[in-house]
Every structure is written in C-alpha cells, then in structure tokens.
Amino acid sequence: MSIERKEEHDHNAWLAEKDLTPVESMFLSTLIWADKRLRLVDYLEILETLYYRINLQMPRSHTEQYNLDNKFWYWYPLYSLGSFSTIAYIVAAISGALLGFYYAPAQGNPQTATVAYNQITFIMTNLNFGFMLRSIHRWSAQVMVAAVFLHMIRVYFTGAYKEPREMNWLLGIVLISLTLLFGYSGYLLPWDQLSFWAGQIGVEMALSVPMIGEWAAQLIWGGFSLSQATLQRMYIIHVFLLPFVVTALIAVHIGIVWIQGIAEPH
Amino acid sequence: MSQDTNTTDDATPEAARDPNEGTARTDGGEPRTDGGANLPVPPDDETPTWRERKERRVGLARLTYEYFERSRYEDQELRGQSTYLERDVLGFPTWPHETIRNLAITSFFIGMLLFLAATLPPHIAAPANPSQTPAIILPDWYLYWSFGLLKMGPLNPELAILGGQKIMADRTFGVVANVVVVSIIAIVPFLNKGNARRPVEEPFWAAVGVTGVVFALTISLLAIKNLTPIDAHLLFDLTFLVPPIAGVFTYAVLKTMREGYMYDLNRRYYRLRPPK
C-alpha cells in the first residue's frame, strides 16, 4: 500500500494532456480545487437528476387544457404584482443600507432640531446624490406597499387563496402587516412634525388597549411619551428586526408558491 | 429462502451430525466468522427489513406511516384514472428567452421607480416639536384606512343594558375595529371554499370583495376629512353607505354576465370531456 496517488487521480496530468484553452483550464482547475474540498460533484449529480426528473414532462396547465386564454388574458399583467413588490423591497433595502451610512437615530438637545432631523437635512442638501437616495428609498417603499395591496386584491378576486393555499394567504396577511409596520417605523425616523405626531397616535392607540396596552407601549415606543428611546427602538425595528423577519417570510411565501404552483383562474 | 439449506436458519440437524459441534465451524468444516450456529445471531431472513420495522411501529409513527402509504396509493390511483394531458416541455428556454424577458421587465420597473424618485422628491416637515400640535396629523397614505377606523366613535353603541354606557371607550373601539378588519380578511379562505376561481362564478364573494375595497377607500377619505371638501357628517354617512351600494351593483352586474359566460364555459368543458 502506497500513499502515492494512483495515476487516474492525477488530475494535473490529465489536465496537461487535454490541451485546453485558458478559459477551460481555469474553469476545470477551479472546479477540481472546490470539488476536492466540498465534494461538489455529488451535489451536481443530484441537481442534474432532479432537473431531468422535473423537466421531462409537465402537465398541461388548466388554462392550456381548456383553452381558456381568451377568457382571462386580462388578469395576466396582475400576476406580476408579487414580483414587483419583491423588486421594490430589494431596491428599498439597497438604498436604505446606503442611507444608513449617514443617518443617526439620536435626539441630541431636544430644545433644537434633533440629530436625526439634521442628518436627514444633511443627506437632502449637502450629500452628493443624497436627495435622490432618500427619494428612491421613499418611493420604493411607497411602491412596495401599493404593490402588496394590489397583489392581495388580485389574489382575492382570482380566488387564489383557496385550498390548498390558505396557509399562504395567512402568511400574506402577516407580511402585509409587517410591511405596514416597516412603513410606519420608517415614517418616524426623520423625526419631523409628521413623524412625531404619527408616533404620538401610535402610543395612544397602544395605551387605549386594556391589559397589555401599557406594556406594549413601553416595549415598542420605549415609554408613554416620545423620546430618544422611541427613536432608537424604531430605528432598530426598521433596520434590524424587520429586515430579517420580512426577508425570511418573503422567502417562505415565494417558496410555497413555488411548491404549490401558480393558481390560475379556473 | 427457507428452502435454502445452506442458511443458518435450519442448520441444527446438520450441526447435530457435525463432530465439531459448538466450535466455530460450518457444516463444510470451514472456520466461521460468526462464531458457529449455536450463538444467538439472528438468521438473515428473520431479520426484519426496514419496511417491516416501520410497519410494526406503534402510536403516532404508525399513524404517519399508514397515512403516507394511503396517500401514496391515492396518488397512484388518481394518476391512473386521470385524463390529465401531459406534454413535452414547449415553453421558452430559461436562457436566453425567459431570463432576458424578466430582466427587461425588472429594469423597466426599476426605471419607473427611479423616474418617480427623480420627478417627485419627498418633502420634509418642520422638526419635531412636542409643545406644538400641528393642524394636520397624518400617517402615510397606506395607513389612512387604519387611521379612519379610529374615527368610528359615533358607531360605538351605547348599550341600554349598561344604562346607556358604552362597553368600551371610543379609542379602544377604534383599535378593536382594526383587529376585527384584519381578522375578517384573514379567515376568508375558511369561509369561501370550493373550486370557483373567477368573480363571475361567485358573484356574492366578488361583491364582498368590491365592498371591502370601496370601504378601504371611503374610510381613507374619512381619515383625511380635514382635507376632503365634503361636509363631515355627510362624509361619515357616505363612508358606510357607498361600499354596500357598490357591492350590490357588482352583484347585479356579475349575476347578469354569469348566464352567458357559464354557457360558453360549460360547452367548452363538455366538448373536451363528454359526460359518461
């Protein structure tokens, strides 16, 4: 028994005899390098098998089988609303990350304008491309919410929530609520008059709930009146909590659509 | 397997003839790696297969196994019976057709976003001032419906049983209304069942949907009543009157459309799948 590699495992010799173009040899040596460490080939084989199993034959969709295209072609553009909200979410995430470089959730001296407000005015007036950046973030958020609402209406009127898709409808309700919460927490961050008094309404709504109201107000708004704590909590909710939760739920939502297929009108 | 005399299964009579019984030998006299026939090694064909082990399990595992067997059987049956037409894949290839189309749609959409952002930049109000309440307090437009529900105080019933008292404060009533609205939307799939998918097939549920959408709009108008050029009392009444009217109208229209529509649909259906 020798610890020398056998000849058929000598990939370099094999590569040398193959007379490959630089692109090919680069690709192959990278593949071999990764495969030695991660056993990629096994997984690629599984993927290939799955691909051929799934794609050889497909059932005709209901629409094709009964030639119903002429009946509801006008619904089809509305089937893109879910993608649109996802795309707007991605645009908002990117522009939001860039805005986060310049924003600070600090109140500072409450007698004058807050640090947060000053940072927003800095972004809008002094920062190169800053006004556009904030505009993109705001508009992508608005468009996302609008697309989510219209998506829900489309799903309702095409009956796409029916068995076996009830779970995804419920998940959608959770997602639309979280989207609104996303919008609300972002609305508070500039800490201008509209933000402040919208926050005030939120606290009062929480306080008017019996039993758990005061606890909820302290948890989410950090007290019964708005302060530094409110701003900081809204910031963490907006840039840390919700992004993780909403991204994960969107992935599950789309995954379920993928598993169950698109619900066509019958 | 039981016919095969070479297995250890019924090796005892042969082992009785073997002078070296008890030592590690087979009947051929070869040394045995399992230590001989007398050791309590389960014979091969008595070892339960994995399938048998699963079948023998009890409790929840047993139920799960039985259900999976049933559902697999059901799938097989249905596939056997179905007249489902299958075809080779006729769709466009993912690359380049689908990919380029999706990239085009996505770029167009992002372009529209950038266009909006460039032409309608956002506004920023005066800095927060806790000591001065502005005349207009508003959330973003997508929360108007929720803000409007907070203004439904006049609908909060004064119960005679409580001596004209309200069961909850107006503001609590508003918050509860929010929860109720979201809950009603959430349970729709459990109320409306069946296979119908198109509004014409279910005029009632389409009417409910239109009522809901129109109510969302009117309640949003109620939320911004300061900015709406209608008398506040009239606006309040219209908020709750217009949605049902829109619903009834939808119901009438769809019910009328339905006859001809279902006729066409049924004809097409029965032409493809004639009744037995």
Structure description:
The complex is a heterodimer of chains A (266) and B (276). Chain A has helices spanning 11-18, 22-38, 40-55, 62-65, 69-72, 81-100, 115-125, 130-157, 166-188, 193-207, 213-221, 228-260, and one strand at 57-59. Chain A has twelve helices and one strand, in the order H-H-H-E-H-H-H-H-H-H-H-H-H. Chain A has two domains: 7-55, no CATH class; 71-260, Cytochrome Bc1 Complex, Chain C. Chain A is extended. With 266 residues, chain A is an all-alpha fold. Chain B is extended and about 105 Å long. Chain B has 276 residues and is mainly alpha-helical. Chain B is 55% helix and 3% strand. A two-stranded antiparallel ribbon of chain B has the order 2-3. Mean pLDDT of chain B is 80; it is low at 1-22. In chain B, strand 2 (158-159) and strand 3 form a beta hairpin. Chain B has three domains: 1-45, no CATH class; 47-77; 138-272, no CATH class.
Topology:
The complex is a heterodimer of chains A (266) and B (276).
Chain A: H1 11-18, H2 22-38, H3 40-55, E1 57-59, H4 62-65, H5 69-72, H6 81-100, H7 115-125, H8 130-157, H9 166-188, H10 193-207, H11 213-221, H12 228-260
Chain B: H1 12-17, H2 50-56, H3 59-81, E1 86-88, H4 94-119, H5 144-149, E2 158-159, E3 165-166, H6 170-186, H7 188-191, H8 203-223, H9 232-272
Antiparallel strand pairs in B: 2-3
